[in-house]
Amino acid sequence: MEKSPTKENNSPNSHPDYSMEEAKNTQVVRNQSTERVYPSQDRTGVQVSNHSSDNSDIEESSSTNTLTINSSRVSSASDRVTICFSDNGNFDSKIDHLEDAEAKPFWRKMEDLEGLPPTSRNCHSATSYGKYLIIFGGREGDGSKKILNDVFILNTSDEKWIEPEIIGETPNPRMGHTAQLYNHTIIIHGGWDGFKVLDDLVFLELQPTMDKVKIWTLVPKNQTTPARQFHTSSIIENKMYVFGGGDGKYWLNDLLVFNLISYEWEGPVETKGRAPSGRLQHAAIVYDKKIFIFGGEPDRYRQLNDLFYLDTKPINGSSKMIWHQPDTEGIPPTPRVSATGCLVDSEIYFFGGFDGHKWLNDLHTFDLKTMTWSKKTTFGHKPSPRCRHSTNHSNGNLYIFGGNDCDKSFNNVHTIHLYPPSTLKKDMKSLINDDLFSDVTFVLEDGVKIKAHRAILASRCEVFKKMLTSEMQESRKNEIEIKDIGPGKDMSSDTFKAIILYIYTDDVNFEDLQMVVNCLIASDKYDLIRLKKMCELELSKVITHDNVIDLLHLSDVYNASELRDICLDYAVKHFDIVTKRKDYDIFQKLSKKTIVELCIKGAGFARRFNQGSQKLQENHDT
Length: 622
Description:
By secondary structure, the chain is of the alpha+beta class.
C-alpha cells in the first residue's frame, strides 16, 4: 500500500481551500430546526444576441420558390440557411456551410424550483434514484463553514425540493464522504466531521413516497473499520469497493471491500498490476464490473489526470483483481482535483474541478468502448467554474449541484440535456396484448389470454423458438394452451406474464421475493440465462440464517450455480447456527452432494477459526 505523508497529522487532506486553521474554526451543526438565510437566487438567463429588425437579411425568390436567410442570427455571417419549397407546398431544408450542424448539449440553470432549497455547500454527496437526487451533508458556504448532516431530495421531473422527515438517529455531520445506492438504500461511508476522520457506515433507506428517510448506522462486530475521507466507493453486485482517500495522515492507494451480505470488511485486498498512486478527491465510475479511477491529488502540490481501471472479474482462474492503465486516444482533461464523473451508457462525463491555479467548468467525455477522450462543446447557461460539486445523470440529463470556487459555495442546480431518453422498453412493452400485429395467443388455465408475436418470442427464447418453428403441434396453432399454470402447478399467471415481459423488454418487476423465486424457476424452464442470473443476484441480497438452506436447496434443484456458491459460503461462515436449527432438517432438504460439501467446508472453516483463536490466545498469554 502506497502512503504519501501529509504535512500535519489529523489533516483533512483536502486541497485546495481547506487548512488545519479552518478545521479548528469549522462549526459543526446537526440537523435541527434553525433559521436559515439563503442567498438571493441568480436570475440571469441565457444570453441572446441582439439584432435589430433591419438586420434579418431575408432574400425571397419567386422564380426559384426559395427563401434564404443570411444567418447572422444563426452562427456566423458566412452561414446561410436555405428552405426550399416544393410545388406541393411541402418543404425541404438544407444548411449551407453551417459549421458543425450537429446538435450541441445545452446548459440550463434550473430556476424557480419549488420548495426550500439546501443551503450552499461543497464536499456533499448526491445520489441518483430514478428521477430523484438525494443530497446529504457537506460543508456549508457563505462564510459559515458548518459541517452538515441534513438530507434534501430534488424531484427532477417536478423541479421541486423536498426536505424529508428523518426516521431514526441522525448520523454525525460530515464532508468528504461517499454515498452509493444499493437497491433502495444509500450507503454512506466515512468523511470528516470537523474533528476526526470517520469510519462508520450509515444506511439511508428510501421510502416509496420519498417524504421520509429511515436512517441507521452499522457497527460491525469485532472489526476495525477503515477511516477514510475524500475517497471513493463503488458497488458491484454485493460488494462495495473503497479506494484511496486519506486517513488524516496519508494519501492512500489501498483497496478495501465491504461485503453487503455478511456486513464484513476485507482488506487491504491484494491485487495484481500497477495500482494508481495514493490520492484523494479523485473520481471513480463503474462499467462492466470495472472501476475506472481518474485524477485527484497525490499530495498538496500536484494534481493528476491519469486513468486506471480495476478489473474485479477473476481471469484465468486467478482470484486476484487486476489494475490496468489503458492506452487512450484523444486529448485528456488537464490535471485536476475534485472533478466529478458519471456514467451515461458507455461514456463517462467529467465536469469541472481545480487544476492548482484555477477552478474549471469544462465538460469532457471518455468513451469506454474506444478508450477515447473528447472535450464537449456546449451552449447555454454554463455553471460557473467550481470544484467539490456533484454530477448526476437522470433520464438523459446531467445535473450539477453545489460546489465552490475561491470566493463562495453554491446551491444552484444546472442541467444539460444529452439526448432523448430511450423509449425502447416502453415501446416493446406496448406490443404485449396488441391486437394489430400479434400472431399468437397464449391461453392460460385460469382463462387469461396473452397476445404475443412469434418473431419476438423466437428471437429471444430458444424454448419458444423450438415450440413455434418445429413440428410440434403448437407451431401450427394461433392459440397455444399453457397447461402448467394455475393453483398447484409449476407456474402462476403472474409469473408467466413476468416471463413474457422480460422477453419483450429485457427487464422484470420483482414485486416481492416470492416473485423472484418463481421467476428463477421459470427461467430455468424456459432457458433464460440472463433472467436466472438477475434472480440469483436478487436472492443473494436477502440471505439470512432462516432462509439460507431453502435457497441452497432451490439453487441445487434449478441449477443456480452463483446463488449456490453464495449460499454455501454463508452457511459455512454460520455453520453452527445453520446446521443446528430445530425447525428444519438439512438432511431432508439438501442433496447428498451438497451436504457433503457443506460439512467438509464447514469443518475446514471451523478448524481454521480454532487455529486462529488459539494463536491469538497464545499471543495474549505471552
